Amino acid sequence: MSRIAEWLAERVPVSGAQLHELTNEPVPNHLKRWWFCLGGTPAYLFVVQIITGILLAFYYQPSATTAYDSIAYITDHASYGWFIRSMHKWAATFMIAAVILHQMRVYFTGAYRRPREINWLIGMCLLMCTLLIGFTGYSLAFEQLSYWGATVAANISDAVPVAGRFAKQMLLGGDSYNERTLSRFYILHAAVLPATMILLIAIHIMFIRLHGVSELQAEEESDDAPRHFNFFPDHLLTEITIGLVLMILLSAISTIFPVMMGPKADPLTTPEVIKPEWWFYVSFRWLKLFSLSFAVLSTGFIVGAMFLWPWIDGALRKITGKEEISVYIGIVATLLLVGLTVWEAVVTH
Amino acid sequence: MSLRAKQIIIAILGFIFLLSLVFVQWVEVTRKQEEAGLTAHHVAVPMTSRQCVECHAKSSPGIIDHWKGSTHAVKGVGCVECHKAAPVDVDAFAHYGHTIATVVTPRDCGHCHQNEHKEFERSHHAKAGNILASLDNRLAEIVEGFREDVTDEEGNVIESLTRFNPHSPTPGMAIDTVNGMASVNVGCKQCHGSKVALEGTDGSLITVEQLKPDATGKPTNPDAVALIKHDASGRPVLSPSSWPNTGIGRLNLDGSLGSCSACHSRHDFSPRRARQPENCGKCHLGPDHPQKEIYEESKHGVAFRDLKEHMNLDAKDWVLGRDYTQAPTCASCHMSANMLNGEKITHDPGERLSWTNRPPVSAVMDTDINGKVVKETDPVKRREMVTSTWQDKRQNMQQVCLHCHTQNYVNSFYKQYDDFVVNYNEKFAKPGQAIMGALTSNELISKAQFDDEIEWTWFYLWHHEGRRARHGASMMAPDYAHWHGMYEVAERFYQELIPQAREIAEHGAAAGRGEQAEAVLAVIDEILARPEHKWFEKNKIKFTGDHAAVHEEIADGPDKTETAASDSTAPAADEEASEAAKSDSDVSDSDSSSGSSDTSSSTP
What we know:
heterodimer, A: mainly alpha, globular, B: two-stranded antiparallel sheet, 26 helices
């Protein structure tokens, strides 16, 4: 046994103490409460997506003639195909919801402030990647709504000044949806975006390790009490519990509400109601409220502002002198997000 | 701001976000389930019907299953709501604590669906049962089956015998007598509707005629009610000669007309099914009015078959122009709502018809207050009687057409259609009617129908071929308008009706009825002298002469026979030969072949 350990230590020169140091991030006390530990859920779900995604990729054939039928095969014939597909779809919904909740927590607690501005930027990049991977994944289904959703999205992209037309052509592989479009979506969805996200998540975690988790001190805590506890085993146990509850929830919802097949994409028949997936409801409703160019420009402005928020927040605090100005803006933004999403969900047009 | 305050803000906003997410997902899942056609709607079994559902789920599970798929089930309309009856209703009986009736009539449906009931009642559909004393019915009762009327000395029918005695045994089945009206019951009445009858204790049948119901549907003749036979469980016995029946013009015991289940199949009452042409095809098909086949041949039917899955057939209101535009079905044009008529549905298909092509001669659909086609010819009187003009009705139909066609297109279509109908009316229908009228009024054929060959000929001409032609034109099915229609009308007219009428006249003349025969032949000649018929006999080669002499010629030798035969079969005889044949015919006698004789031949 010791010979094996020796052999291994020679080839992987990391000592037990170093390993302990590397993994045992001192965890701030507030993370003893489970509801502060949700930052890990997007990562957890990302792993679920990779596993279920690989299983789905065994069967999926990304071309206009075969895509729909291959998904129908997964759903109706492949063993547990319907379950894997449902897990993949519901995990996507959960993941986006978890990312938004995580970002809300970071925002309202001001965790993006100096010195963590760069990690906020990386988080924003992850958010964009998550939305994009959701969009490309939905388009792969080649159902009426996903097909027309993609077409509408491409046309919206076209309205973006300067780079819009190029972006559209890059996305669709031409001026309109064609037989080469699906393979682009597929490569983006199954290779480019996941690889980018893995890289970004690694940097995101690396920055957390470098800066440490931002610490929140509750009023009732005395200043001299220990401010940290061990990652292993205390915090890991909490994470495992959360992960298990998440898996139970995910598999239950996938079984009760399995994903079904919508009508197959028909480029000649525009459906009366075109809807994107729910995470784009907010921007879709925004689009319908204003002219296309205004909506596109304002969306670009809002996304830009979100990226630069740590600095905008700093400037606002300086100008107004109010420390918590961002909280009030955040409340309005969240209510707007919820309101527009629900609005789009309930109307047919 | 304290950390606690921020925690509360995050908790509240997070909760709102999650709640909205659950709601959005619920909406999404419901929408996708609907899209996939998997929406299992909630069934609300009302307390009053709980026992019915439990018991019938075992004894007749199909009925319960069908009902569970209906909108009634969702809205809590159960068995009792439709089947309940008042104790005074003649067909009512006690059934596990409820007083119910088997037959649900439009009056029952009308308790909730008042407008639909009113529209239906004034429709031609509701009056379809009136056929029971018509020509078609005589065909099925007497010609196809068995009915013998026993009359008194004055010729009044005192009894109709309809029990048919088989002439030989059916091995394996003990049969005494069968109903001679079987063809009517199984054929005519299943579309047109039966006169619902209860069996009487004296063997008679008790119908709406004997019961004389008042305006509320309650019987006013206690003697007839007292005669009703009940089975061991106390249930009035419905005569199998009239029930089961879902004919659209059924004459119900409560005095109401029709049957809603003719189109809205009973227990599930599927609107989806009623919107599809197959539903109408139960009755509107076949040799005499192949509307279903005509529709299938038309561009409308072809588009429907192709695009059916996009037609949104499950939509709540199914409004043309909003819920679908792919193709029209029978319902789209004749009944359903559309964007241009203010989304108004009608249960009177006659509201959109400008011609009636049912009778021998088509008439425009000027209708009176009772919805009957006005036959008055005096313009002033006619104007007084008409409450709804054919132009109104055409406009109603054009509102449907205009969803997919321009006004110019629609106007030109109607011009083609009008020309076609008038052409049929004037060239064949009215002349045919005149010839048949002349034969009957001159007593060269009997008044009884279908005992003379020419009556079958005339019936085929207008009832089968004439309708096919007109319906084909009305619904843009060229093959039905022409080959199955006008071609056969023309062939029947020239090759059968005219020769048969002449032959009857000649036989009449031979039997000493010269004057009457001459009157009939005068009618025929006047018709054939019209410009549109001139072509028929203008160039015809006519053969005359003594038949005996021809026989002699044949007996004399082959050479002469050949000459005679080649002459008689020459199809392209030149002008001279034709003229000669004509002059020959002028001196022909009554022995000459019937097809080529003219008026002079009728003089004995």
